[in-house]
Amino acid sequence: MANPGGGTVCNGKLHNHKKQSNGSQRRNCTKNGIVKEAQQNGKPHFYDKLIVESFEEAPLHVVVFTYMAYGIGTLFGYLRDFLRNWGIEKCNAAVERKEQKDFVPLYQDFENFYTRNLYMRIRDNWNRPICSAPGPLFDVMERVSDDYNWTFRFTGRIIKDVINMGSYNFLGLADKYDESMKTIKDVLEVYGTGVASTRHEMGTLDKHKELEDLVAKFLNVEAAMVFGMGFATNSMNIPALVGKGCLILSDELNHTSLVLGARLSGATIRVFKHNNTQSLEKLLRDAVIYGQPRTRRAWKKILILVEGTYSMEGSIVHLPQILALKKKYKAYLYIDEAHSIGAVGPTGRGVTEFFGLDPHEVDVLMGTFTKSFGASGGYIAGRKDLVDYLRVHSHSAVYATSMSPPIAEQIIRSLKFIMGLDGTTQGLQRVQQLAKNTRYFRQRLQEMGFIIYGNENASVVPLLLYMPGKVAAFARHMLQEKKIGVVVVGFPATPLAEARARFCVSASHTREMLDTVLEALDETGDLLRLKYSRHKKSARPELYDETSFELED
Amino acid sequence: MATATEQWVLVEMVQALYEAPAYHLILEGILILWIIRLLFSKTYKLQERSDLTVKEKEELIEEWQPEPLVPPVPKDHPALNYNIVSGPPSHKIVVNGKECINFASFNFLGLLDNPRVKAAALASLKKYGVGTCGPRGFYGTFDVHLDLEDRLAKFMKTEEAIIYSYGFATIASAIPAYSKRGDIVFVDRAACFAIQKGLQASRSDIKLFKHNDMADLERLLKEQEIEDQKNPRKARVTRRFIVVEGLYMNTGTICPLPELVKLKYKYKARIFLEESLSFGVLGEHGRGVTEHYGINIDDIDLISANMENALASIGGFCCGRSFVIDHQRLSGQGYCFSASLPPLLAAAAIEALNIMEENPGIFAVLKEKCRQIHKALQGISGLKVVGESFSPAFHLQLEESTRSREQDVRLLQEIVDQCMNKNIALTQARYLEKEEKCLPPPSIRVVVTVEQTEEELERAASTIKEVAQVVLL
């Protein structure tokens, strides 16, 4: 990711500049972590919302014990690898066939060390198969392992009516069939499931046109284009927008699809600290002033890649500040609204609406239909010339099969529902219910003394568990004892010492369901001693610490 | 003796110090202090003098004008005006308001319109709704997915299969899951775009060999072998892969798999096979190129195909030995970090597999139809048929290029348009001309499906012939 040439460009200049900018910026820090320096350039952005975001640090002893836990796990891993090598312990992993033993090994030993020795112990907490719609309650298929998670066996029993805190079903639009889905049934019966061609060849259906017009209308922009897979929307369109000689400034916590797209584009990539406008401004300044490494030519263009809501942190992008920076330095902004579209903003139009900004100020609005809309696929929206360009040059439009018609119809149905085009206000109520549920859930968790991350308006709620042992204990206890399906995430999706549980609040969760979950969490929290919070709301302090403000360029 | 002399020297020096005049001592003292100062002072920086002032920096920022995010696209760009299909893209297709016979969609087995497939999808819709709202790891694994993986593995007679929610992402994610920086991939020049992107994401060393030219491949492998002997330590950890397609999307030709397998064992390179066009087409039971050649499927390390052509659903899959495939469950980016396949699409794919298993005769019918139109299209003046006679997707290229790609494309488009007027829906094979590694020449891609009757095939061939004569002469 880091650009090897970048360091040399900045040599000798950094000191001077850093002192200046840091000095002026530090004065402008407000308490809740909003940097105002972006508003200095004559165009202040006033928005009535105060961003309340918290990232409480773990107590020292927790950090120490977490690293110790990983250390012990690693030691035992080495011991067991040793035993397996000598044939004392049976190795359950699949092995290379005899005929190919003399090939260069497909995997290096160390590559799978973590999987084999740490992940394998707690693997039962992921990939849990379900056998119902991912609504507020779902049915989980019970499975057991007779060989310490190397293989699983289904018992045939079904754990019924588990409360679903794991699916990104923000507006409750993914549920089993009901009468409101009749149009999908009709489309399925007429069109079938496949398309068997690409957009450029014979795969542009009237349904796609209808959907694209509706998406543009929903987002209040000139035009939109839809793609068959959310992940590919990023990875196959960013290369069409930037290339060699361009610079991508990417948030350090961006989703893999954005990272992959950036990499495939061939542009130079520099990473700024998560949601940190100081770090971003410094990179922007340096980029504009010093140009490309070695050749010193000016960059062709600079594209800033951010997400609306970050799925692992629950933080919301500091859009007004970033927009101000983008304008000042004439960069372009690409926002991935995968987790914010439909879920954030008074009527679910995403982060631009949340901050009361014109969606046209963002150059590229990207989002997915997987989450709030209960379908699959993604879109890119913005000005007409952008979308026209993508229609011609998007990798996805030329080489990938276009979106399945019934899926498109589900999105159309969801959009109409949220926009109130179905003649009811139910959609709007759902969006409001989601906001209510989110705040209620977050507030209660905070009161209980858990460390939770992120913005109070983000429906993704990460609850910090830290220790790998507790990750497994928590997830197992919640499912088996409390009948609650939770998602837990650890390294490598999060920093090593910051394993967490992640709840996705939905509008379809009733107050009773949330209370049940909260009660269970309260109990489990006491049982596993998860209430780490010292009741001191603090912004992430390291962001404003001068010494840590070094970029790993 | 020696020590005595040294002592004597020391004494003399001290004595000299006493005897030296004061001005001398002061001068020396100043010199020593000077040296110390020089030693501890900051190094003299050349750059500091060229440091930009704040004002200059502001000016630079003010001055810089980026290129527009996207260059303007001419309003009449052909790609902007897509063919719009109203209704289902099945055998009879309504393109831009005109009903045609479809020779453009990869619906080889006609399953897109199959009532059984639709019924299965509908049953799934009733039970599961549409979306899965999560990746496979986080409650996005449905029983339908497990069933489909199981069925695919059984159908292909491999140990394991893994499904992706997008056909393009399948091979593009599978390659970088195994091949990393420093590894070497031998790949056919005609490989499709998804393979190219997968290779790019893997950041491995890429060696292109001439299309289907085994001698060229062997030459590259030999070169590598010599290279390896020079540096055996590096060679021990450098994985080698050969990436080929079963039937090539860009040429309609089949890969010489038996020779490839021989080379595989001779040079110890693993074979990854992309079968999007050949899966559900070649072989007695539609298992693809391995069945076509009668090759043990375990000799191929990884087979990937999409479910968007023969199966007429959405998504893709990889299959092979568990030792290989299982790795993708944590390392396949398009698998781990993307929402899983909507269950109704998985259910449609399962039903499509059922139909394929129940009617193995369907593959012979398809083969016969391919042969028929292939034969009928021979000898058109100005157009040549490129591709195997048993390939359901093949190309019509200009016999003689006009030397300008644009002009070629225009001529071919004229043929396509006129055929469309005569109710035969065709399309040119579209490429991103600047992105392709080895851009294939412009062509019309003809797709054969089992639903096309003998008369329709005849009619299509004669229409193309007529129109080509008008346009090209």
Automatic annotation (TrEMBL), chain A:
<dbReference type="InterPro" id="IPR015424">
    <property type="entry name" value="PyrdxlP-dep_Trfase"/>
</dbReference>
<protein>
    <recommendedName>
        <fullName>serine C-palmitoyltransferase</fullName>
        <ecNumber>2.3.1.50</ecNumber>
    </recommendedName>
</protein>
<dbReference type="GO" id="GO:0017059">
    <property type="term" value="C:serine palmitoyltransferase complex"/>
</dbReference>
<dbReference type="GO" id="GO:0030170">
    <property type="term" value="F:pyridoxal phosphate binding"/>
</dbReference>
<keyword id="KW-0808">Transferase</keyword>
<dbReference type="Pfam" id="PF00155">
    <property type="entry name" value="Aminotran_1_2"/>
</dbReference>
<dbReference type="InterPro" id="IPR004839">
    <property type="entry name" value="Aminotransferase_I/II_large"/>
</dbReference>
<keyword id="KW-0746">Sphingolipid metabolism</keyword>
<feature type="region of interest" description="Disordered">
    <location>
        <begin position="1"/>
        <end position="28"/>
    </location>
</feature>
<keyword id="KW-0012">Acyltransferase</keyword>
<feature type="domain" description="Aminotransferase class I/classII large">
    <location>
        <begin position="160"/>
        <end position="521"/>
    </location>
</feature>
<dbReference type="InterPro" id="IPR050087">
    <property type="entry name" value="AON_synthase_class-II"/>
</dbReference>
<dbReference type="GO" id="GO:0005789">
    <property type="term" value="C:endoplasmic reticulum membrane"/>
</dbReference>
<keyword id="KW-0812">Transmembrane</keyword>
<keyword id="KW-0256">Endoplasmic reticulum</keyword>
<dbReference type="InterPro" id="IPR015421">
    <property type="entry name" value="PyrdxlP-dep_Trfase_major"/>
</dbReference>
<dbReference type="InterPro" id="IPR015422">
    <property type="entry name" value="PyrdxlP-dep_Trfase_small"/>
</dbReference>
<keyword id="KW-0443">Lipid metabolism</keyword>
<comment type="similarity">
    <text>Belongs to the class-II pyridoxal-phosphate-dependent aminotransferase family.</text>
</comment>
<keyword id="KW-1133">Transmembrane helix</keyword>
<keyword id="KW-0472">Membrane</keyword>
<comment type="pathway">
    <text>Sphingolipid metabolism.</text>
</comment>
Automatic annotation (TrEMBL), chain B:
<keyword id="KW-0808">Transferase</keyword>
<dbReference type="InterPro" id="IPR050087">
    <property type="entry name" value="AON_synthase_class-II"/>
</dbReference>
<comment type="pathway">
    <text>Lipid metabolism; sphingolipid metabolism.</text>
</comment>
<keyword id="KW-0012">Acyltransferase</keyword>
<dbReference type="GO" id="GO:0046512">
    <property type="term" value="P:sphingosine biosynthetic process"/>
</dbReference>
<keyword id="KW-1133">Transmembrane helix</keyword>
<dbReference type="InterPro" id="IPR015424">
    <property type="entry name" value="PyrdxlP-dep_Trfase"/>
</dbReference>
<comment type="pathway">
    <text>Sphingolipid metabolism.</text>
</comment>
<keyword id="KW-0746">Sphingolipid metabolism</keyword>
<dbReference type="Pfam" id="PF00155">
    <property type="entry name" value="Aminotran_1_2"/>
</dbReference>
<dbReference type="GO" id="GO:0016020">
    <property type="term" value="C:membrane"/>
</dbReference>
<dbReference type="GO" id="GO:0030170">
    <property type="term" value="F:pyridoxal phosphate binding"/>
</dbReference>
<dbReference type="InterPro" id="IPR004839">
    <property type="entry name" value="Aminotransferase_I/II_large"/>
</dbReference>
<keyword id="KW-0812">Transmembrane</keyword>
<keyword id="KW-0472">Membrane</keyword>
<dbReference type="GO" id="GO:0046513">
    <property type="term" value="P:ceramide biosynthetic process"/>
</dbReference>
<dbReference type="InterPro" id="IPR015421">
    <property type="entry name" value="PyrdxlP-dep_Trfase_major"/>
</dbReference>
<feature type="transmembrane region" description="Helical">
    <location>
        <begin position="161"/>
        <end position="179"/>
    </location>
</feature>
<protein>
    <recommendedName>
        <fullName>Serine palmitoyltransferase 1</fullName>
        <ecNumber>2.3.1.50</ecNumber>
    </recommendedName>
</protein>
<dbReference type="GO" id="GO:0005783">
    <property type="term" value="C:endoplasmic reticulum"/>
</dbReference>
<keyword id="KW-0663">Pyridoxal phosphate</keyword>
<comment type="function">
    <text>Component of the serine palmitoyltransferase multisubunit enzyme (SPT) that catalyzes the initial and rate-limiting step in sphingolipid biosynthesis by condensing L-serine and activated acyl-CoA (most commonly palmitoyl-CoA) to form long-chain bases. The SPT complex is also composed of SPTLC2 or SPTLC3 and SPTSSA or SPTSSB. Within this complex, the heterodimer with SPTLC2 or SPTLC3 forms the catalytic core. The composition of the serine palmitoyltransferase (SPT) complex determines the substrate preference.</text>
</comment>
